Amino acid sequence: MIFNLYLQGKSVLGIVKELERLEIKSPTDRDKWCKRTIDVMLSNEKYVGNVRLLDNGKHDLCYFAEGNNPAIISKEMYQAVQIEKQHRSNVIEGEDCSRRKNKKYSSKK
Description:
- By secondary structure, this protein is α+β, with helices and mostly antiparallel strands.
- The chain has a single domain, classed as Putative Large Serine Recombinase, Chain B, Domain 2 (Hect, E3 ligase catalytic domain fold, Alpha-Beta Complex), CATH 3.90.1750.
- The chain contains four helices and four strands.
- It has a two-stranded antiparallel ribbon. The protein has a two-stranded antiparallel sheet with strand order 3-4.
- A hairpin with a 4-residue loop joins β3 (91-93) and β4.
- The longest helix has 14 residues, at 75-88.
- 10% of the residues are buried.
- Mean pLDDT is 84; it is low at 105-109.
């Protein structure tokens, strides 16, 4: 449901509000959901049955186990969410470094 809501255009905060409206408890059995929980879920490969072992972000070496556990969503849906997340992101990856998109909003007219 979370992946579907995201692909339907809901923001992470919108998904949090929808889950709380439906009275769906968080993974820690709380009434309130953290935005970070939803964001991590949307990026977690385990939902398609894959897992990265020994990947702590500090080393180049890690092991990728495909089909390690039963998939909850399709690989296509997972990829669509990753593309949508990149599309919604305000970070541009340049050749030399990452930077924020230059979009400034002013309350003055």
